[in-house]
Amino acid sequence: MTPQLAVFFVLAAIAVLGAASLILQKHPIHSALSLIVVMVALAGLYLLLGAEFVAAVQIIVYGGAIMVLFIFVIMLLNAGVEEHTSISKMAGPPGLLLTVALAGFIAASLVRSTSTVQSTMQSGQIASTRDLSSMLFKDFVYPFELTSFLILVAVLGAIVLAHRERN
Amino acid sequence: MIPFLQANAELIITVVKIALLMFIVLTVNAYLTWFERKVVAHMQSRWGPHRVGPHGLLQPLADGVKFLFKEDPTPAGVDKFTYYLAPLLALALALTSIALIPFGPDPILLFGHKIYLGIVSPDINIGILGLFAITALGVYGVALAGWSSNSKYSLLGGLRSSAQMISYELALTMSVVGVLLLAGSFNLKDIINAQFNPRHPGLGILGWNIFPQILGFICFFIAAVAETNRVPFDLPEAESELVAGFHTEYASFKFAMFFIAEYTSMITVSALCSILFFGGWLSPFPASWTFTHYLPSLILIPAGLWVIWDGIHYETIFGKIILPGLGTAFVAIGAVLLALPVVNLYIQGPFWLLSKIFVFLFVYVWMRGTLPRFRYDQLMAFGWKFLLPVSIANVIITAFAILMWGAK
After folding, report:
1. Distance CA B185, CA B81 (A)
2. How far apart are CA A98 and CA B95, in angstroms?
3. CB B146 within 8 A of CB B163
4. From residue B408, how far is each of A133, B165, B182, B203, B207 by CA, in Å?
5. Is the pTM of this model over 0.90?
6. In angstroms, what is the C-alpha Rg of chain B?
7. Residue A92 confidence (pLDDT)
8. Which DSSP state fits B184?
9. Is residue A76 in some structural domain?
10. Is residue A87 included in any domain, yes or no?
11. Segments of chain B with pLDDT less than 70
């Protein structure tokens, strides 16, 4: 087992445990904290793949900005321990079934594409920010701009909703 | 024993460096509190601490002992896990961020190992992004402390802190983009080297980023002060409204941990300001002025002599012993630098960086002695309506200028 693989397993275990804790925690703040753990572990995985820029941005944007917003909202609403109604308890078994199905689907597609996963793991190259940005702004410029547009629409929607409330 | 040392040399060096940096940072933090209290006191025509030791120099030690031995009650109804996690998180992240700061350009060669000044080598591709990533996580210490304390003052402090962080994080990141465009790299070493033009070595201070990036610097410094929760942005701990804000319910060493975290992030921000805008370890004088290399000795020896003179005239016996001793140490260091040109040349980089950090720390204290606190709505309006647009305008102007005339 190479050191890289060992680090991968540790980070992967932290990410999976964090995700499980996210669902199992009773209090929203604890769930949000678990999500931060998942985000940071994912950043570590990106770093392992040589994607330094993506790893840093993962922590700055997701671990920092977005999760701070989550925690801010939870604190502002002073949300207490989650209440379980009979309907929300009923959602458990189908959810479990869906989880198993999703895991099977991901596993199946991984098995089919073993070669590419292996090569990404072992390339050991560090992707430069220059390459990344030229790809983003040349090859994928339309999807990129479309996503920005989508976010703009969402922001406008949020403003409209908030204003209607005030009036 | 020897083969073991040789096999794990890198690891051992790193551990020793971490221990050394921790010791230095914590000591500097302690004396930063003394410095702050002294400077603010003199600004307000007071004496400041002067009872413990000569000129109050042992006050930080007394404070440290007090922090350790105070009773440490846990309030009822707190969320135990988060309550204990918060100060730990704040301190750990603040100390980690300082580990990414390079303090000098050249490594020391010791037994064939390159030892850089700083925990990591200055050549990290994502240097500045890594620092931002760690400071971005720093807010959780404050926010979680506020939430878990089960107190309305703490909760309001935590809420304010997270809202402030969200508002100023954007301006902070945008204001650096201009510098990154000029350097074409996230690497802290490249950013510093981009401020020295080898074709015009006589430029000195004129080559620094502060001149083309004055807008960026203003935005960066204001946003960075807001991120460290210092005056005039100390709303999360506004004592007139919120008792002590997010750390109301913390006592003893847990409170000290928040305190140390705040002062450590002050050092990090000062170091970042120096590196990004003020040439880092570069000298402000033209490279041909080699006589400026005697400046460290020229400052240390007179300062040491003054401390000796002051000590001889001090009232207490203790001061008569300690102060001349301290002064002699200063003079000795200055004399060693004069006697060994190799060492003197080596410490030029660290000397300039540390001097710049010291200037920014003084500015922090100066602001604390001068400015009143923002009102909450002023804080939000300032962040969103002034700082963010100006920093975005700076990015656009810089990008156009580079497009027109090139990066250099």
Report:
1. 40
2. 43
3. no
4. 22, 34, 8, 13, 10
5. no
6. 23
7. 78
8. T
9. yes
10. no
11. 1, 111-112, 122, 407-408
List all residues 6 or more positions away from A126 whose beta carbon is below 8 Å from its beta carbon.
Answer: A50, A52, B125
CB contact under 8 A, A56 and B162: no
Assigned domain for A97 exists: no
Task: Report the Cα B254 to chain-centroid distance in Å.
Answer: 21
A52-85 confidence digits (pLDDT tens): 888 888 888 888 888 888 888 888 877 677 676 7
Number of domains in chain A: 2
In a domain, A100, yes or no: no
Same domain, residue pair A78 and A135: no
Q: What is the mean pLDDT of chain B?
A: 84
Q: Please, how many CA atoms are within 13 Å of residue B206, restricted to the half-sphere of its CB? A: 7
Position A116 scores a pLDDT of 59
Q: How many residues does chain B have?
A: 408
Angle between helices B252-277 and B152-183 (to 10 degrees): 20
Cβ contacts of B326 within 8 Å, gap of 6 or more: B304, B307, B311
Q: Strand, helix or coil at B135?
A: helix
- Number of structural domains (chain B) is 1
**Structural domain containing residue B236:** 2-288+340-405
For residue B186, the chain A residues in CB contact (below 8 A) are 53, 129
Q: Which amino acid is residue B164, in one-letter code? A: Q
Q: What is the pLDDT of residue A75?
A: 81
Range of the domain at A134: 129-167
Chain A nearest CA to B390, separation (Å): 20
Q: What is the pLDDT of residue B72?
A: 82
Nearest Cα of chain A lies from the Cα of B144 at a distance, in angstroms, of 9
Given a contact cutoff of 8 angstroms between Cβ atoms, the answer to whether B191 and B179 are in contact is yes
* Same domain for A74 and A136: no
Query: Is B158 close to A57, i.e. CB distance below 8 A?
Result: no
Task: Dump pLDDT digits (tens) for A86-120.
Answer: 777 777 788 889 989 999 998 888 887 766 555 55
In this complex, do B126 and A55 lie within 8 Å of one another by their Cβ atoms? Answer: yes
Instruction: Report pLDDT for B3.
Output: 73
Provide the 3-class DSSP secondary structure of residue B109. Answer: strand
* Alpha carbon distance B380, A71 (integer Å): 19
The verdict on a CB contact (< 8 Å) between B137 and A59 is yes
pLDDT per position as a tens digit, B105-145: 777 777 667 777 777 776 777 788 888 888 888 888 888 88
Tell me what pLDDT residue A47 has. 84
| pLDDT reported for residue A118 | 56
From A109's Cα to the closest Cα of chain B, the distance in A is: 33
Q: Cβ of A29 and B82 within 8 Å?
A: yes
pLDDT at position A114, please?
65
Q: If DSSP codes are grouped into helix, strand and coil, which group holds residue B312?
A: helix
